[in-house]
# Entry
Amino acid sequence: MQTEGQTAEGRITKAERTRARLIEVATRLFQEHGTAEVTVRRIAAAAKIEAGSIYYHFSSRDEILRAVLERGVGDARDEVLAAIAEAGADSSPLVRLRAALAAHLKYTLRHHFSSRLKAIRHLPKRLRDHHMQQERDYAAIFAGLLREAQRKGLLRGGFDASVVRMLVMGALTWVAEWYDPKGPLSPDEITDELMGILTKGIVK
Amino acid sequence: MQTEGQTAEGRITKAERTRARLIEVATRLFQEHGTAEVTVRRIAAAAKIEAGSIYYHFSSRDEILRAVLERGVGDARDEVLAAIAEAGADSSPLVRLRAALAAHLKYTLRHHFSSRLKAIRHLPKRLRDHHMQQERDYAAIFAGLLREAQRKGLLRGGFDASVVRMLVMGALTWVAEWYDPKGPLSPDEITDELMGILTKGIVK
DNA sequence: AACAATACCGAACAAACGTTAGATTTTGAC
DNA sequence: GTCAAAATCTAACGTTTGTTCGGTATTGTT
# Structure
């Protein structure tokens, strides 16, 4: 057990690895048990470290939460953007929208990330503002696709695009509250159901 | 300050009034700050009572939470059923669905009741089962309306009604997370937007 | 091998938590 | 007005919480 992290230039220090492990563990615990029930001591135990040692890596418990949230939104954003890119820049905005929504749903389910909700409102102002900016950027991805579809004349008029965007994302975010991984439905099928509503409605 | 509660038969004891006040105050606090951050002492202070006195009315903190949740779902159910009744039993199921969704949204916004989410998962099993049964009953109202519309041939085929129901209710439940009472949108307008999607979709 | 920096331990801290129980006040029936 | 019952207060309890800090390993460089 030596010479694992190199310190020359592209160094990966032990601290960085421990910090990453703490974020991973904390993310899992926050998701499983809710942000409020997870104590510093539990995070420490799960990361096989002593509670006090955490404060070598984070200045406070809130700082851990901030890091978790930041990574969460960041990762989701990356996956959604990757899905859009994979659909091809020349594909229909609606095709890309479907891909984006599917990626969003998959990430939400995989990380059960409505746990976001449980925390944001009570973060210290500074952190909350920063996080809400991240959320806005994330939402802008979907808004952009809708706007592009609108510009290309693919959509009917007479609706408020930003409301629709929030309703749609809300529907998907809420899936995490009722989704049963052992059930018959896949995330893709749910996304298709949603896209079916968006394209055709459900009324004859 | 005397002879307020009568004790003959239709008595309203002081304890009942205090208990009701505690539930009211606790509901508001749970909604504003999240279930986990609200301590027994804070509830007591907000109800202008001493912390210890709470245990004359509730046997534990969880018991308060249970009462709050129970009243929440019950009240929402009553309001939704009232809205459906007001629409008239002979009106179109879609009209009644709109009325029901609007009532659901209004209640959710008025009480910011996505706070439900934050608690259910970690209630003692007994309480949780009971509460989830209540939620199922509540959801059944909307499912019934959808089924009726389907039976009357108002809807197209090829979609999963239960998934649609959950997506729709999720969209509305999530509204509480982004809704701005000072903004230009009313709950009714949001409901209309949603019904517009359901009836026509948004694609040309 | 030696040494400074890094990373972690382990014990302690004050504060806040839910809860209990005995004393005390308020209430309503007579 | 009296008196038991009902309702509340008051003070404390044992835990657990986030956090601090001096010491102790571990690490990478020379």
